[in-house]
């Protein structure tokens, strides 16, 4: 190993042992905790994850408890974190652990990597952080740190670059310190070598950082831009109930599979692309919504705009225009629909966008 590598491993580990944050999943070596936290941390900030993690572990303290829970409870515990397929995969993985490994996450790379929803990064994180195995765990943070430190100009959006950086990261792990070392690189990426403004003057490895020495710390890493999410305009119906359903809203459950599977939402329609650029005048939009929902068996009369809301998924951007409808009287609630009130909300899982819309409605 060259001096630049030895220096990195030594100084980074020393810095981490003095500076690591006290995070709930770090308080004990527990592979299930590592697994849950790493899945939650994908695309989500540490400060957001902490209360979710604590509630989740209190509710589902072991893989077996998670495996045996109703899916609705798991989605409810995940509500607000987004990317719900993560929660479903986590539960599917927990079921595999319960069935094949007696409820204990196995200390075996091949077995861990075959669990549902566990990719190369999460495998590396579980094997190294929980079991102290010398496996790299390379995510965006780690690619950024190593691209800068070694002044690598390869595009980190390319799979071959990740493989190359995994080799580099594996060689850097000091014997017997995989757990602390991998967390140290992640911690450096989160606290010091941040995406936009790396704090090089506070960095424990600044002396030999090739990117900094070349003045390229903000230029690196090189990353080609992903395609922007596809915009979709949608019209939604806010349908209030009457009689025993007074104060409740008519919601529907999404299909068994696909985006946001089985979660609950306001009935809404996708506006054809050619009409969605500027949107239609409200009167025409309401007509379109009424006609489309009629075909679903819902008789509604949109009367005024309630509010607009939006949400970006990884590949789609939803712009939702919500129309309040005249009060609907349903002797029988159509299949797949339910009237949901302020007090029933806890029994249903909603995507973030509809959590915000329900909050706005019930706050009125
Ligand atoms: S010196 Fe700067 S660019 Fe290099 S690893 Fe440290 S924070 Fe990142």
TrEMBL record:
<dbReference type="GO" id="GO:0034039">
    <property type="term" value="F:8-oxo-7,8-dihydroguanine DNA N-glycosylase activity"/>
</dbReference>
<protein>
    <recommendedName>
        <fullName>Adenine DNA glycosylase</fullName>
        <ecNumber>3.2.2.31</ecNumber>
    </recommendedName>
</protein>
<dbReference type="InterPro" id="IPR004035">
    <property type="entry name" value="Endouclease-III_FeS-bd_BS"/>
</dbReference>
<keyword id="KW-0479">Metal-binding</keyword>
<keyword id="KW-0227">DNA damage</keyword>
<keyword id="KW-0326">Glycosidase</keyword>
<keyword id="KW-0378">Hydrolase</keyword>
<comment type="function">
    <text>Adenine glycosylase active on G-A mispairs. MutY also corrects error-prone DNA synthesis past GO lesions which are due to the oxidatively damaged form of guanine: 7,8-dihydro-8-oxoguanine (8-oxo-dGTP).</text>
</comment>
<dbReference type="InterPro" id="IPR015797">
    <property type="entry name" value="NUDIX_hydrolase-like_dom_sf"/>
</dbReference>
<keyword id="KW-0408">Iron</keyword>
<dbReference type="InterPro" id="IPR003265">
    <property type="entry name" value="HhH-GPD_domain"/>
</dbReference>
<dbReference type="GO" id="GO:0046872">
    <property type="term" value="F:metal ion binding"/>
</dbReference>
<dbReference type="Pfam" id="PF14815">
    <property type="entry name" value="NUDIX_4"/>
</dbReference>
<dbReference type="InterPro" id="IPR005760">
    <property type="entry name" value="A/G_AdeGlyc_MutY"/>
</dbReference>
<dbReference type="InterPro" id="IPR011257">
    <property type="entry name" value="DNA_glycosylase"/>
</dbReference>
<feature type="domain" description="HhH-GPD">
    <location>
        <begin position="40"/>
        <end position="191"/>
    </location>
</feature>
<dbReference type="GO" id="GO:0032357">
    <property type="term" value="F:oxidized purine DNA binding"/>
</dbReference>
<dbReference type="GO" id="GO:0035485">
    <property type="term" value="F:adenine/guanine mispair binding"/>
</dbReference>
<keyword id="KW-0234">DNA repair</keyword>
<dbReference type="InterPro" id="IPR003651">
    <property type="entry name" value="Endonuclease3_FeS-loop_motif"/>
</dbReference>
<dbReference type="GO" id="GO:0000701">
    <property type="term" value="F:purine-specific mismatch base pair DNA N-glycosylase activity"/>
</dbReference>
<dbReference type="InterPro" id="IPR023170">
    <property type="entry name" value="HhH_base_excis_C"/>
</dbReference>
<dbReference type="Pfam" id="PF10576">
    <property type="entry name" value="EndIII_4Fe-2S"/>
</dbReference>
<dbReference type="Pfam" id="PF00730">
    <property type="entry name" value="HhH-GPD"/>
</dbReference>
<keyword id="KW-0004">4Fe-4S</keyword>
<dbReference type="InterPro" id="IPR044298">
    <property type="entry name" value="MIG/MutY"/>
</dbReference>
<dbReference type="InterPro" id="IPR029119">
    <property type="entry name" value="MutY_C"/>
</dbReference>
<keyword id="KW-0411">Iron-sulfur</keyword>
<dbReference type="GO" id="GO:0006298">
    <property type="term" value="P:mismatch repair"/>
</dbReference>
<dbReference type="GO" id="GO:0006284">
    <property type="term" value="P:base-excision repair"/>
</dbReference>
<comment type="similarity">
    <text>Belongs to the Nth/MutY family.</text>
</comment>
<dbReference type="GO" id="GO:0051539">
    <property type="term" value="F:4 iron, 4 sulfur cluster binding"/>
</dbReference>
């Amino acid at each position: 190993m060259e001096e630049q590598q030895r220096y990195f491993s030594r100084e980074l580990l020393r810095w981490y042992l003095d500076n690591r944050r006290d995070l709930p999943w770090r308080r004990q070596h527990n592979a299930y905790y590592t697994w849950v936290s790493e899945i939650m941390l994908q695309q989500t900030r540490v400060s957001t994850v902490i209360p979710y993690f604590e509630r989740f572990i209190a509710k589902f303290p072991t893989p077996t408890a998670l495996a045996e829970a109703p899916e609705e409870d798991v989605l409810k515990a995940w509500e607000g974190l987004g990317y719900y397929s993560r929660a479903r995969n986590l539960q599917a993985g927990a079921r595999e652990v319960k069935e094949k490994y007696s409820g204990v996450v196995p200390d075996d790379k091949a077995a861990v990597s075959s669990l549902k929803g566990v990719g190369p990064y999460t495998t590396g994180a579980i094997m190294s952080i929980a079991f102290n195995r010398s496996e790299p765990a390379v995510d965006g943070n780690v690619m950024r740190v190593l691209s800068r430190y070694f002044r690598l100009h390869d595009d980190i959006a390319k799979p071959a670059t990740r493989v190359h950086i995994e080799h580099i990261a594996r060689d850097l792990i000091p014997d017997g310190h995989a757990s602390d070392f991998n967390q140290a690189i992640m911690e450096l990426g989160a606290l010091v070598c941040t995406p936009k403004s790396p704090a090089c003057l506070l960095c424990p490895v600044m002396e030999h950082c090739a990117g900094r020495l070349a003045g390229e710390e903000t230029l690196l890493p090189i990353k080609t831009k992903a395609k922007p999410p596809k915009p979709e305009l949608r019209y939604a119906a806010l349908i209030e109930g009457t009689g025993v359903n007074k104060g409740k809203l008519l919601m529907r459950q999404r299909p068994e599979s696909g985006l946001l599977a089985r979660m609950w939402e306001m009935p809404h329609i996708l506006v054809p692309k050619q009409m969605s650029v500027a949107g239609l005048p409200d009167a025409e939009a309401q007509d379109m919504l009424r006609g489309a929902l009629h075909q679903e068996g819902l008789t509604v009369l949109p009367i005024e705009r309630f509010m607009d809301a939006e949400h970006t998924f990884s590949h789609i951007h939803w712009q939702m225009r919500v129309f309040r409808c005249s009060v609907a009287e349903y002797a029988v609630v159509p299949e797949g629909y339910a009237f949901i009130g302020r007090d029933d909300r806890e029994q249903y899982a909603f995507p973030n966008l509809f959590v915000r819309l329900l909050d706005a409605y019930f706050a009125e």
